[in-house]
Amino acid sequence: MLRKVYATVFGNLAGRYVAGGYVQFTFRETTPSDKDFSNLVAELSSELRALTSDSGESSFHADSFSLGTDICLVIYQSEKAVACGSFRKHDSETCELKRMYSKYRGAGSYLITQLESCAVIKGYKRSVLSTRKVNDNAVCFYERHGYSKVSAYGKYVHASKSVCLGKSLAT
Fold first, then answer.
1. pTM strictly above 0.90
2. What domain range is 32 assigned to?
């Protein structure tokens, strides 16, 4: 259903030009228990553990996922799962991005565009997230996509290793 609404509102933006040519991506809305989503999140957790000594798993609980307010997406390239991400309700106007991971050039940009578009459809006006300061690639990625530092929120208020970022969403 969301895909039909999205296509009507935003058109088909299922591709991205990257060095070497045009790459076709598609996305599928799913749940945290989906095999492709779970496998990609496991890869993300492993990479985060190696980079930061923390997998980030304590910040995302599949059992708290709510179909009415939250979204999980898997991005595919040639039917292969290459990226995943989700958002959950932070407050009535704000969603929080969670478990963003891409292992294919351009898929992360496509993913964040899809997540933000889905958030707008669900009525969110703002997006926030937290990542580790040491994760320079993630911080730079989010800044390139219009995110800037915001006041720490929730469990991150006293987390000196984290940086919180936010962005107003186009409505």
1. no
2. 2-168
pLDDT in tens, 53-98: 554 444 555 666 777 889 999 999 999 999 999 999 999 999 999 8
Do residues 140 and 131 touch, judged by C-beta distance below 8 A? no
Q: Dig out the tokens for 13 from the structure.
A: 């933006």
End-to-end CA distance of the chain: 20
Instruction: Give the span between the Cα atoms of 133 and 135, in whole angstroms.
Output: 5
Q: Dig out the tokens for 156 from the structure.
A: 């991150």
- For residue 105, the SS3 value is coil
C-alpha distances (whole Å) from 113 to each of 51, 108, 162, 170, 171 are 25, 9, 23, 11, 13
Domain count along the chain: 1
CA distance 145 to 51: 22
The DSSP secondary-structure symbol of 143 reads H
Half-sphere exposure of 29 (CA within 13 A, CB side): 17
| Cα–Cα distance for residue pair 154/162, rounded to 1 Å | 12
Q: In what order do the strands lie in the sheet with 15-18?
A: 15-18, 21-30, 71-77, 80-91, 94-102, 126-132, 162-168, 148-149
- CA-to-CA distance for 66 and 64, rounded, in angstroms? 6
Domain CATH for 127 = 3.40.630.30
